[in-house]
């Protein structure tokens, strides 16, 4: 028990949170005073009905939030009967807590509401340096969720009052050290045992089933050999690829598109320049700007007089500390990026390498620019770019046409519902076929056949019984599919001849486990009658609930529950398909020592478990007080938690 708590501490706290704190996001309690009490009632709390619609909406909100948090989650798992029933239980829980909060007149002060709102990071981020809340931003944040400040705060008050119902128990439950010690001693107690495992495989050679044995096993275990319900179908898909095939692109269209996009196809022209800067920020006094301009004009005259000395003049006179040491070199840049716009514009106006600009004014001062290099633009030839251009142009036109064709597709599969051929011919689509399609996607399924909604439509009553086209189903971005059932095969057991080998293996495994159990029970009976006959046991080991030494949990529990006053003692445990286990208990050992830190952790875990039990108990009392009833049956689950059909 404590081992489970230790390993799943976060899960325990999450479960506690589910019991104590109502959902803020999944569903509020607006309209709690009056519910639709008509048909489709699935639960009842305090005389008020919970309808199928409310349940569906609550579950949908949970699924949407879960998928938003983790898009990779399996939709089939989220929409399973077990998960949906859990949504109903949470909805009932919230209604019970709301009724209790109302019945106990629990109120939430403005200060408590403000503190709760402040804990929301999105709302807290709207506060300015002065601590005031940006009300317009607050309203926009809530409006994006379809809420008003008044409605949101009213719901928050209700939710906070619901928290108070059980929070007192969760926050104040006291656990004595004596209780902790008693529980931990039981958890850590050790016993020295000798364990004998009787594995089914050791008895398999003794099992020789007859044909009648196998036939009998097959008849009583037919469900193990079921072939799921399946359909053979034809289907067609409208997507961008299919639309692109029908798009006409002429040679002239391609050449025009090439000319319009030539600048983006290759590399644009680049130029290299050097400059001399006389600094004069744009917000400097006018006199200072004039003085800088006069200096720049004098330098410009000096450059014109000795053009080959531009780099030396820049080194001595430029205010640009970065470029001055390299003679004012600015490196290579494009006209639209890479340097100051004023410098770029002036540089690209110069005709040839070696040309000197007039004075150029910028936000930093006055520049004199020398063009030192030109890399012409490189545009790949039309024929080289033709395939890419054609694909781009087809895609653009297909995207524009898709919405219109989607309407045609949707209407077509509905209006001529006995065949996919008319709409496929009209839109130039391919009709595909697939056999053995089941309600769940196959492991290697792709496209429409991997879409649960599309598969669900194929198994609707209309599709199965009337062989009509399904509606147009969105199976992906810009993808619509419709299918039609050609043949339907109900779920059935595979013929005995087909599964005979599997039946034989299963029969031998079952009978071997039975023989292991019978042998184990016989040994146990003999040992209990005459302890000295217990021979051939392996070396002793010390086991506890905390350190089971890889022994089965059922055996560990049986050993530790055995009467310690009668040693040696023998226990036997049926392990089902894993055979049988026998143990001779020789000694009771003292509990393993714990460090101070481990003891503190143990107390925390025990307190969590105890609090969880108390909260659960108090909640059960509230359910009884407010007459909470779920009116739909709980889905059956197997050992793995999967719903039984």
Give a description of the structure.
The chain is an alpha+beta fold and 645 residues long. It is 49% helix and 16% strand. It contains 24 helices and 17 strands. The strands form five sheets. The chain has a four-stranded antiparallel β-sheet, with helices on both faces. Strands 10-5-12-11 form a four-stranded antiparallel β-sheet. β8 and β9 form a beta hairpin. It is extended, with a radius of gyration of 40 Å. Residues 1-39 and 638-645 have low confidence and may be disordered.
Characteristic terms for this protein:
single chain; 645 residues; four-stranded antiparallel sheet; extended
**Number of strand elements:** 17
Major β-sheet strand ordering: 14-3-16-15
Bin the strand percentage. 15-25%
Q: Characterize the biggest β-sheet.
A: 4 strands, antiparallel
Topology:
Elements: H1 2-7, H2 9-20, E1 41-45, E2 48-51, H3 52-69, H4 75-78, H5 81-103, H6 110-118, H7 121-124, H8 135-143, H9 149-172, H10 177-188, E3 190-198, H11 211-220, E4 226-227, E5 230-239, H12 240-245, H13 251-260, H14 262-265, E6 270-279, H15 286-305, H16 310-317, E7 329-334, H17 341-347, E8 360-362, E9 365-375, H18 382-415, H19 421-427, E10 431-437, H20 452-458, H21 461-466, E11 473-476, E12 479-489, E13 492-493, H22 496-529, E14 541-543, H23 553-561, E15 569-574, E16 580-589, H24 596-625, E17 629-630
Antiparallel strand pairs: 1-2, 1-17, 3-14, 3-16, 4-13, 5-10, 5-12, 6-7, 6-9, 8-9, 11-12, 15-16
In short:
The protein is α+β, with helices and mostly antiparallel strands.
